[in-house]
Design goal:
Helix content is 62%, strand content 2%. It is an all-alpha fold. The longest helix is centred in the C-terminal third of the chain and has 29 residues.
Length: 347
């Protein structure tokens, strides 16, 4: 998770969001990573447009979509050899190492102040430790494609929570319609008319709870870390360091050390952290700087599509008609919740 420039409404989204000069009310994943998504950063300086990168922004946008979309496949592969807490631990560990390397090269310091680190600890729990663990546990019993679609419900949870937690966020008929449409999509994905037959209730509940963690964390961060000095990379790296400590403690208490390190699951966990968190966040920051947060955050809508495609083609997961149809309805509802009324003309 990070922060985008916009400052009007909370948008829960799965992938990490975008950096800006102040903490936004509107936030877009992780796997994700991602990732949503997934980690927090506050930008201290205004964004200045930079053009002419090594790769065209459309190419980087596509790469970012694929990286975050494949995160759910990587989680699934990682859980074949490691406990869910260990998969989450490896994810934040290698993500932290990637960002700390960037800080070292740039010679940027980590955040300072006990208050800042205290709030980052809560943010790490809500935005990394809890959702990453929940998604890993969920994928023990549900397909990676279903986990990716559940992750896409974050904007819906975010809109619902923002109406309660953020007084400046005013509901509109269109956003209420989007909320209702989105949850109709969830019911379609789960096959509600069939009594949810064939769907693992526990795993699905874990995935939906993980997607709920993101907007809760975003609201907390907005209330506590707005205006905190420090670069996005420094604050994100600090948050991932804390999440690494949290998951190391939990893993030591509730899991036993792995007896072996199989190649593919190990590589999956490393890629999940180093690419899905470290590289992807840097790429996202660059996209926001170049094309703005509105365009950059559209990557979120490609994540469930790629996650479903990867699960079917690579892992051989079954795909029924209601899964893509329901996913399309979820994304349509999520898009509606992101719309805002046009500015009123002065009398």
């Amino acid at each position: 998770m990070s922060y985008e420039v916009d400052t009007s409404t909370v948008r829960g989204m799965s992938a990490p969001t975008t950096p800006g000069p102040a903490l936004p009310a509107s936030l877009p994943s992780t796997p994700a990573t991602a990732t949503a998504i997934t980690v927090t950063a506050v930008a201290a300086a205004p964004i200045r447009a930079r053009r002419g990168g090594l790769l065209d922004w459309r190419v980087r946008f596509a790469i970012l979509s694929v990286v975050w979309g494949f995160s759910f496949l990587l989680i699934k592969v990682g859980t074949e050899a490691y406990a869910p807490f260990q998969v989450a631990l490896g994810r934040v560990l290698f993500g932290a190492l990637a960002l700390l390397t960037v800080l070292l090269v740039r010679r940027e310091p980590l955040p300072r102040g006990l208050r800042t680190w205290g709030h980052l600890s809560v943010a790490a729990l809500l935005l990394n430790t809890a959702p990453f663990s929940l998604f890993a546990y969920a994928e023990l019993s549900i397909p990676s494609s279903l986990a990716g679609i559940c992750n896409a419900t974050s904007p819906l949870w975010g809109m619902a929570l923002s109406l309660v937690a953020l007084s400046e966020d005013r509901p509109t008929r269109r956003r209420f319609a989007g909320l209702g449409l989105g949850f109709v999509g969830v019911l379609t994905v789960l096959g509600a008319w069939q009594g949810f037959s064939g769907v693992d209730a526990k795993g699905t509940a874990f995935a939906l709870l993980a997607s709920l963690c993101y907007p809760i964390g975003w609201i907390y961060v907005r209330r506590t870390l707005a205006g905190t000095p420090g670069s996005p990379v420094a604050l994100t790296g600090g948050q991932l360091m804390i999440s690494t400590l949290q998951l190391a403690l939990v893993s030591a208490l509730f899991t036993s050390a792995p007896s072996s390190f199989p190649l593919w699951p190990t590589l999956a966990v490393i890629a999940l952290g180093a690419l899905g968190t470290g590289m992807a966040l840097q790429m996202q920051y660059g996209l926001v700087t170049e094309v703005g947060p509105t365009t950059a955050q559209m990557v979120t809508y490609f994540i469930p599509v790629i996650a479903t495609t990867a699960g079917v083609l690579v892992l051989g997961e079954q795909l029924h008609w209601n899964t893509p149809v329901g996913a399309a309805i979820v994304l349509a509802g999520a898009a509606l919740t992101q719309t805002r009324p046009g500015a009123r003309k002065p009398a």
